[in-house]
Amino acid sequence: MTALALALLLPWVVGVVLLLADGRRKLVGWAAVAGLLANLGALIWLAVRVLPDGEQTIVTGGWTDGVGIVLRADALGVVFALLSSLVVLAALVHEVLEGVRSRTFPALVVLLATGLTGLFLTGDVFNFYVFFELAMIAAYVLTAYGDDRHQLGAALIFAVVNLVGSFLFLIAVAATYHVTGTLEMSEVAARMADVEPNAAILIAVTFFVAFGTKLGLFPFHFWLPAVYAGTRPAVAAILSGALANIGAYGLLRFGAGLLPNELELGSTVLIVIGSSSVIYGALLAVSRRDPAEMLAYSAIGQAGYVLVALGVGGPIGLAAAVLYAILNALSKALLFLSGALRGALVAAAFAVGALSLAGMPPAAGFLGKLQLFRTGVEEGSVALIVLLFCGGALSFVYAFQLYQHEFWRGDRVAVGTDSEKGVPAEPSGVAVRAVSVVLALLVLGLGIWPEPLLSLSADAAAVLHGGAVR
Fold first, then answer.
1. What is the pTM of this model?
2. CB–CB of 75/89 below 8 Å?
3. What 3-state DSSP class applies to 332?
4. What is the largest CA-CA distance in the chain?
5. Within 10 A of 322 (CB to CB), how many other CB atoms are there?
6. Alpha helices (H) along 216-364
7. What pLDDT is attached to residue 65?
8. What is the per-residue pLDDT for 424?
9. Where are the domains of the chain?
10. DSSP class of 420
């Protein structure tokens, strides 16, 4: 059995089996962790085989191509699958060490990871939708995890808004099949060039709105602050560091990969919307006092950088978009998880995440700003360079406010908790703090030794450059 099949089969089997068990038991929680470790191991094995060769494709069930489910692993899909699996694993370990509060939580997290792995490693548009919905259904339930009014309210908002996004995506899938006669990604990319321009633009806009809603871009952001601030830290880390990757990956794969001509036509609009997201999200993050709300609004701004880089396009712009998506996911997961804890090591880990968010060296977030700055210089865009300086300055302000509010004040309130009740400023357990410290070391290590990450981002962008899924 290939690594590609194992990466999907292992978490699927573990997730289904664990639905029958009580997830509040430590043994069940650690079984879920073992399932995600197996998923991560299979993805690493797959990456080792794919990155030198470029691509691995299988058709399930022994069917011919065009009939069976096509699974395709290339550099872009593997990078996002690895990133999401790592974030979900860190969040699950964090919650198991803290104490799981729901019998279905571990199983749902594993099934969500299965859905994410599937959509990043599929070569078919409809199967992307199927895996997409599997991940979203698990996420709907997870946002209600905790069972108080904040979690239930967040779950309702999240479900309603994302169902609209899913409906729009399904419409775009149907329209794509209508005009191309296929849903296999490589075939769609080849045939879209012959589609009537108005129809192609309408399909591109529908895909953009669907993925923009998932990513929380301005002006589709209205659901994001209430959901991120209303869920528990582990769930917020999964939503911001893993599930949001659907939006970033979708814009890259469907925009630059399947609809490159339409992406080029709308590049100015993408840059304007991305810039608006950067400034709007940063300004609202600075104006907030609740740490969870600060992080939620900052997510809007950080997602804007991905859209700006995508709008610029070209090898450098696409590589910058991939790089920024990776760094944003790691930084957000680190901040949500460490913000719920206390202790000197956690304070240092949180500081690394805050520096990364603000784009300050030596944290890895600096690489994203540097790549975008390089893009601005290469393109001769003064506006992009000014945006980076303004957005970076605002990011530094709210990152400093976050750290001050969380670790300098005496009445500290953990991210993801009820700010009226607060939490004791006592050190958390050593094991749970270690999760945040490991993530912080990863973010710091990538900033100090950036070459592997830069090379990986360039390889992932090369899959898209030229407008074809190779």
1. 0.90
2. no
3. helix
4. 64
5. 32
6. 224-230, 233-238, 245-250, 260-265, 267-287, 291-312, 314-338, 344-358
7. 61
8. 42
9. 3-464
10. T
Cis before 52 (ω within 30)? no
Q: What is the pLDDT of residues 197-244, one digit of tens each?
A: 899 999 999 998 888 877 777 777 777 777 777 788 899 899 888 988
Amino acid identity for residue 443 in this structure: V
Q: How many residues are there in the chain?
A: 470
pLDDT < 70 stretches in the chain: 1, 52-53, 61-68, 146-151, 407-428, 465-470
Residue 266, both tokens: 């709308």
Q: Are 236 and 336 in contact (CB under 8 A)?
A: yes
Compute how many other C-beta atoms are within 10 angstroms of the C-beta atom of residue 20: 9
Please, which residues have CB within 8 angstroms of residue 112's CB and are 6 or more apart in sequence? 88, 134, 135, 138, 139, 142, 238, 242, 243
The pLDDT score that the predictor gives to residue 1 is: 54
Torsion sign (Cα): 148, 153, 158, 159: positive
- Amino acid, single-letter form, for residue 449: W
Q: How far apart are CA 146 and CA 439, in angstroms?
A: 24
Tokens found for residue 61: 């069930």
Do the Cβ atoms of 141 and 159 come closer than 8 Å? no
pLDDT the model gives residue 67: 60
